[in-house]
Design brief:
301 residues; alpha/beta; eight-stranded parallel sheet; 15% strand; binds 3-hydroxy-3-methylglutaryl-coenzyme A; metal ion binding; hydroxymethylglutaryl-CoA lyase; HMG_CoA_lyase_AS; PYR_CT; HMGL
Length: 301
């Protein structure tokens, strides 16, 4: 199969990457991260979440972050909104694109958003309606597509059923999340084969955490299935508050390196992206999760 000629990266570092950090991170540092990512040439940055601050305290300042970032024309700056309360807060903050998030496993849905899968989908219907009325695009997420921290194996058909509902209610794209990073290349191909029977592949995205070191292999497997949108996190930041032990998303720098090696060019400046990752890692006092960034720091390549 021929690989896609163009790939879009959805940078989730400021949201998925930072949401799990225990230490307080100032608004100025979050703003600087988003601005650095814009400067590096990312076309899509997920900036924050309008969720309960009791559930995810780190995202509490998202409105202030939106107010202070330098938005570049042509770049999408998005936020997660789990319900109408979040959607309205996002609109008040001037957000132009939002994402709703469901799960393919009942246990994860309960732990993450305190309701069943069916209840979550019902909650999203008014969000999609309000978004449509305002001309706001909505992206959909499905978590636990290749395994659940509470239930183990998740059937691709279950993922397909949730993804189908999100697409049918108006999500323009559905991102399939390997929340705990247990997926393998073989399972990834099967997943997109099954979900791709209901939803056009150019409306699907892959979101791979790298807990088992399989994320790049899973992205390559997805490319072979015709998937051309991938979520990634600068410096491999992150983890999920409701999936203990899950590591961050695949590092954006490493995905860029993979794509470049395949002759798929994104226009993103790798050096600037590495610098953005190094800076936020220094702020957080943590190791850089990007293998490419670490190699370049040591003078490799
Ligand atoms: C969904 C809720 C709110 C339900 O939480 P709930 O407690 O069931 O909500 P509720 O409607 O009963 O309201 C209870 C309180 O929450 C408040 N509330 C209610 N809604 C909001 C809101 N939007 N913004 C701010 N506050 C809100 C509401 O005002 C009230 O406040 P109180 O009267 O107690 O002071 C909660 O469970 C929640 O916020 N969960 C956060 C989940 C989250 O952010 N998880 C991480 C993101 S998902 C992810 O990382 C996976 C992904 C996308 O990356 C893909 C992958 O890797 O799998």
């Amino acid at each position: 199969m021929t690989l896609p000629q163009h790939v879009r990266l959805v940078e989730v570092g400021p949201r998925d990457g930072l949401q799990n950090e225990k230490q307080p991170i100032g608004v100025a540092d979050k703003v600087r991260l988003v601005d650095d990512l814009t400067a590096a040439g990312l076309e899509y940055v997920e900036v924050g979440s309008f969720v309960s601050p009791k559930w995810v305290p780190q995202m509490a300042g998202s409105a202030e972050v939106f107010a202070q970032i330098r938005q570049k024309s042509g770049v999408t700056y998005a936020a997660l909104t789990p319900n109408m309360q979040g959607f309205e807060a996002a609109m008040a903050a001037g957000v132009k694109e939002v994402a709703v998030f469901a799960a393919a496993s009942e246990s994860f849905s309960q732990r993450n958003i305190n309701c069943s899968i069916a209840e979550s989908l019902a909650r999203f219907v008014p969000v999609l309606g309000a978004a449509r009325a305002r001309g706001v695009r909505v992206r959909g997420y499905v978590s636990c597509v290749l395994g659940c921290p509470y239930e183990g194996e998740v059937a691709p058909q279950q993922v397909a059923s949730v993804a189908r509902e999100l697409f049918a209610m108006g999500c323009y794209e559905v991102s399939l999340g390997d929340t705990i990073g247990t997926g393998t290349a073989g399972k990834t191909r099967t997943l997109f084969d099954v979900v791709g029977r209901d939803i056009p592949r150019d409306r699907l995205a892959g979101h791979f955490h790298d807990t088992y070191g399989q994320a790049l292999a899973n992205i390559y497997a997805s490319l072979l299935e015709g998937i051309a949108v991938f979520d990634s996190s600068v410096a491999g930041l992150g983890g999920c508050p409701y999936a203990k032990g899950a590591s961050g998303n695949v590092a954006s720098e490493d995905v860029l390196y993979l794509l470049d090696g395949l002759g798929i060019h994104t226009g993103i400046d790798l050096q600037a992206l590495i610098a953005a990752g190094e800076r936020i890692c220094a702020v957080l006092g943590r190791d850089n999760g990007s293998r490419v960034a670490r190699a370049r720091r040591l003078g490799g390549g």
